[in-house]
Structures are given as C-alpha cells and as structure tokens.
Amino acid sequence: MTNNDILRRIRYTFDFGDDDMTGLFKQADVEVTRAQVSDWLKKEEDEAFVELKDVELSIFLNGLINKNRGRRDGPQQEPEARLTNNIILKKLKIALNLRNDEILKIFEAVEVTMSEHELSAFFRNPKQHQYKLFKDQYLRNFLNGIQKKYRPEAGS
To answer: Are 24 and 49 within one domain?
Structure first.
C-alpha cells in the first residue's frame, strides 16, 4: 500500500474535510496547504498527483494521535523518516485508543482470524526474534475493518 492510499482511506473513514486534514498536520506542528493535501489525495494517474513521503504520513498520524488523545507534555514525537506497516499499525492503535482485543475484533469483522500472540508479534521490537512483519494485506484488511467500525454506513 502506498502512503497516499493510507491517507485517502483514513480521510474517507473519518470523513475528514480539507480543513480537518490541514488541522491534523497542524496538531503535529507542521503547516500544510489545502493544495498540498489535495495533491496527495489525487489518484496516481492524475498529473497533479504528488507522492506522500513517509515523514509526511508520520506527521499526519502524529497529528491524529494529538487530536484524539491530546498533546503530551514536553517535546512532541519526532516523525519517523522511514515508516513500516508495523509503525503505522502502532500509531493507529494509539490514535484510536484501541486495545488488542478490539483490534482482533476489527480483523474478525473483515473475516481475518488472528491470535493474540500473532497480533503482539506486530508490536514487538524488530530486533526480537518473535517480531513479525505487518504485511500490506494485513494493513489493507485493518483499514477496511476500521472503516466498518467507524463508518459502517459506507459498507465495504
């Protein structure tokens, strides 16, 4: 999945308007214009399409965390220069205040069976031997599941 796909899906799931989108970046202390957001949301075939970099998606997800959970005291979270699907899952878990059992129910809603142990492997340190890569298909299913949970009227 591309960063642009992820941004589009989150925007759709939570029905964020342009002002909401720029506001989420602002929550992470970064100013972006509506034009920038618009270009990130365009399809790849569009001439005005601009690829969303890892650091920009990280800033957006940090802003979502700040909006939903409140800003923490002290220095703000530094955006990752390189994102993995595992980091994206972790940031969404924090932003949406999800417990592991809730994440498993989200996966069940899209007919993906996963054990508590499998899920915990996605949150481990990459240096641990139990660490498991959160592949694109899992991320796609997770985003479909949160769409079902937070915007059920949209269907699948």
So the answer is: yes
Q: Tell me how crowded residue 143 is: count the other CB atoms within 10 A of its CB.
A: 23
DSSP designation for 152 = G
- What 8-state DSSP symbol labels residue 47? T
What residues contact 73, with CB distance under 8 A and at least 6 apart?
none
DSSP reduced 3-state for 125: coil
Phi, psi at 47, each rounded to 5°: -60, -30
CA atoms of 117 and 46, how far apart (whole Å):
42
Name the percent of the chain in helix, strand, coil, to the closest 5: 60, 0, 40
* One domain, residues 62 and 121: no
Going from the C-alpha of 78 to that of each of 30, 75, 94, 138, 142, the distances in angstroms are 12, 8, 15, 26, 25
The upper half-sphere exposure of residue 20, i.e. CA atoms within 13 Å in the direction of its Cβ, equals: 13
The answer to whether position 74 is within a domain reads no
User: Which two tokens mark 40?
Assistant: 């990130």
- Please give the model's pTM, rounded to 2 decimal places: 0.93
Give 47-75 pLDDT, tens digit per residue.
999 999 999 999 999 999 999 998 888 77
